[in-house]
From TrEMBL:
It comes from Streptomyces narbonensis. InterPro entries: ASHA1/2-like_C, START-like_dom_sf. This is SRPBCC family protein. Transmembrane segments: none annotated. Residues 14-151 form the Activator of Hsp90 ATPase homologue 1/2-like C-terminal domain.
Amino acid sequence: MCSDTFVYTTYIRTTPDELWKALTEPELTRRYWGVAFESDWTPGAPMVWDEDGRRTVDPEQVVLAAEPGRLLSYTWHTFTPAWAEAVGLDREVYAPLTRERRSRATFAIEPSGDTVKLTVTHGDLEPDGIMRGLIGEGWPALISSLKSLLETGEELPEPPR
C-alpha cells in the first residue's frame, strides 16, 4: 500500500469513558500494550513511553489533542537502540526506520448504540516506509487485545514476532 495513513476501525462493547481510561491509564495500557504512558494528557504535554523499564523521552513526543471520551492524538515514539533490541529489530531495519519522519496516532471515540466505535488513524507515515509495514500488523493485534480486555477483562496473549 502506498499511503501515508493507516486506518483501523472496530466496535467495542464499552463506554467512551472506559475506552478513554484504557487508552491513557498506565495500569491498563501496560496490560494489552506492554507500555505505560506518563503524561497529563493535555495538548502540548510531553509523553514518556515506559516499556518494561525502558523509558523513551523526547521533546517531540507530545500530546496533540486530548478530549476525554472523544479524541486522543499524539506523536509517535522515538526509535532508540534499546527499543529496537527489545522488539528484535535488526540493524538493517532499524537504521532506515530512524530516518523516517515522525508519525502520529489518533484515536477517535464515538458512541454507537451499546458499543463504542474506535477509529485509529496513524498518519504522517513515509509511504511504503518501514513503519507503515510494522503498524499494518501491529495495530490490528493491539486493538484486538484492547477490545478483549474491555469486553472480557482479559487481554490477548502477545502475538509471536
